[in-house]
Write a structure and sequence with these properties.
heterodimer; A: alpha+beta; two-stranded antiparallel sheet; 17 helices; 23% strand; disordered N terminus; B: alpha+beta; five-stranded antiparallel sheet; three-stranded mixed sheet; 8 strands; 43% strand; extended
């Protein structure tokens, strides 16, 4: 045992002897040249030494007159480097030598916030004990406690609360520590914050509560925790969405069950008229629809305009081709679309007009079809990529007309018809493809009345903002 | 949202521009064969008339009208035996052509009409020149004549 200690001491002694000339040389070189080195040079070296956590050099430079509050072009000080990189001793030396603990660089990330980012609890505590502003926020308005809550740093949260960190600070979007921890799903931290009397029904700037955010993720344990702490289940955000709406929209059946069992209102409509049932229908979630139906929820839906679409398409049969475009609106509550279409025959077509029993005329006919129609959609399935496949049945009123036939004063016959059809459309939110069938016989001459429609629609979703999930931008 | 609206409007505008361009009859927009571009403005041009010549109709009577056939202003009457004939006429007028066919015991009158005109090309060739636009009359019988 003695031999082991002896050998160990000898090893350290040799190591010290070997290293001491190097350390001494480095320190000597700084000291020996300090008369020639300007303060600017010393400050620059201090920043470099703080960045790599070289305590001895930091101390030497400070002794030599370097400014502990010197900074880079962007305002970063040696203390911020030390806090960011987790060099506790370096930070301590700087603080004890007069470094400003509350200094903020251009991005407003103070040394304390920086230490919090990186879960450097000892440095954070050191800074707080030396009067760092515990509630300092960065350019997003985020405090150390909010960061610690979002990044699941339980110990840091606990420490910040112990030292009096303000639990109610909200960032520029209104997100507080409870919300941040909820969105990310940090159960223990939410519980810690609630145990420290965080207000539970505070909303962000869009009116979302922590419960709405938990419902968005379908986090049943958090939903239960928040409800047990008296979260208001029927609070709605500025678009009129409650936690129930949000859980339904995102397809979290278990979360919906918990909210309903807790007594959440099951009939409310959002500002644009979505009931929970309508949202279940919109998302195509059969299980959810079945469950909500079993609650005898209000199925009568009010009309809303959910999207506008523009759809260039071809209509063709064996002897004809039309090209044009449809523009329309879709109500996803009622799954009904209204559309107006304009189609022109791509190439003029030869047609026969019987004059009398023995005489007929052959003309070149150009033709335009104007259509006003109604579509009824039926959701078939969701695509793995996030889109959907829908069946549609349509009824259209078509007014078909043509100009004068070339070479004659005779005008092409106008036709008014009701046209039935059906088809499927599939695709993402922005772009959808459709293939359809229409039965249209203009009666001018014997033609194939079976038409195929091929289209691509560009969709503008009008309620996307309303139905967007809560996202923490700085996370 | 703003991004989506601008994308939607871009697509809408693009489609409108394509439709407008496709309707534009300004030849300067398309490539012009300068070897077929007249240095002086032509006074006359050729109507190119296509007809169906078959066993039932080895020769086809045609009538060329100034303006539409209802005007009754026949300029040329002829019987042709070739599938395509070229007939010189003064330019910048509307002409209609009527061909008469026998189909069984029935008569079928195939009619076509168009304005044949000159179009000034300013930019695409070395000097200003003129092309002739129009003048093709397709009077061939449709396959499934009733």
């Amino acid at each position: 045992m003695v031999g082991f200690l002896f050998r160990k001491n000898i090893f350290f002694l040799i190591l010290l002897i070997l290293c001491s000339p190097v350390i001494a040389q480095e320190q000597d070189s700084i000291i020996s040249t300090q008369k020639e080195i300007s303060i600017d040079e010393l400050n620059k070296k201090l920043l470099e030494a703080a960045y790599v956590g070289n305590d001895d050099i930091v101390l030497t430079l400070l002794d030599a007159g370097a400014d502990p509050n010197t900074s880079m072009w962007n305002g970063i000080t040696p203390l911020m480097f030390a806090a960011d990189n987790g060099f506790l001793k370096t930070a301590k030396i700087l603080v004890l030598n007069g470094a400003d603990v509350n200094r903020k660089p251009e991005n407003q990330v103070s040394a304390l916030v920086s230490a919090t980012f990186n879960n450097n609890m000892d440095i954070a505590e050191l800074l707080i004990r030396h009067d760092a502003d515990i509630n300092a926020t960065d350019s997003y308005g985020v405090s150390s406690l909010i960061y610690a809550a979002a990044y699941n740093y339980y110990g840091l949260c606990d420490m910040l609360l112990y030292y009096g960190g303000n639990i109610e600070i909200q960032d520029e979007k209104g997100t507080n520590a409870v919300m941040a921890a909820t969105v990310v799903g940090n159960y223990d931290i939410v519980k810690l914050l609630l145990d420290n009397r965080a207000q539970i029904n505070i909303t962000d700037h869009k009116g979302n509560t922590a419960l709405i955010m938990a419902a968005q993720n379908g986090d049943t344990s958090l939903i239960n925790l928040l409800l047990n702490h008296h979260a208001e289940p029927d609070y709605v955000n500025k678009y009129g969405l409650s936690a129930l709406h949000v859980a339904v929209k995102n397809g979290h059946l278990e979360a919906v069950r918990i909210l309903v069992n807790y007594g959440a209102e099951i009939f409310p409509q959002t500002n644009t008229g979505y009931t929970p049932y309508a949202l279940a229908k919109k998302s195509g979630n059969r299980e959810m629809k079945k469950y909500l139906s079993s609650l005898k929820v209000k199925k009568k839906l009010s009309p809303t305009i959910d999207r506008i679409f523009l759809s260039p398409c071809f209509k063709l049969n064996t002897g004809d081709l039309f090209f044009g475009s449809e523009i329309g609106i879709v109500d996803e509550n009622l799954e009904i679309g209204l559309q107006f279409g304009y189609f022109s025959r791509t190439f003029p077509k030869r047609i026969f007009i019987k004059s009398d029993e023995k005489k007929s005329f052959q003309f070149w006919e150009s033709r335009t079809n104007l259509g006003l129609g109604i579509n009824k959609y039926l959701h078939l399935s969701n695509l793995a990529s996030g889109g959907s496949v829908d069946f549609f049945a349509l009824g259209k009123f078509i007014y078909s007309y043509g100009g004068k036939y070339p070479g004659s004063d005779q005008k092409a016959k106008s036709v008014k018809k009701i046209v039935p059809g059906f088809g499927i459309c599939w695709g993402q939110e922005l772009v959808k493809f459709s293939v359809g069938y229409e039965y249209f016989n203009d009666g001018i001459e014997p033609i194939n009345p079976h038409w195929i429609n091929l289209g691509v629609s560009v969709n503008l979703n009008l309620h996307k903002k309303e139905l967007r999930d809560k996202v923490i931008e700085w996370y | 949202m703003k991004k989506k609206i601008s994308l939607f409007l871009t697509v809408l505008l693009s489609i409108m521009v394509i439709l407008i361009i496709s309707c534009d009859k300004n030849y300067d927009f398309f490539e012009v064969d300068c070897s077929e571009c007249y240095r002086t403005r032509p006074e006359n041009g050729e109507l190119i008339i296509s007809v169906t010549i078959n066993d039932e109709n080895p020769e086809v009577p045609i009538a060329i009208y100034r303006d539409r056939i209802e005007s009754g202003r026949i300029r040329i009457k002829d019987t042709i035996t070739e599938k395509t004939v070229y007939i010189e006429v003064p330019l910048n007028h509307y002409y209609s052509v009527k061909a008469e066919y026998k189909v069984g015991d029935d008569s079928v009158f195939a009619i076509d009409g168009e304005r044949i005109k000159t179009h000034r090309i300013a930019d695409q060739c070395d000097t200003i020149c003129w092309i002739i636009k129009g003048g093709r009359y397709d009077l061939r019988l449709k396959g499934n004549v009733p």
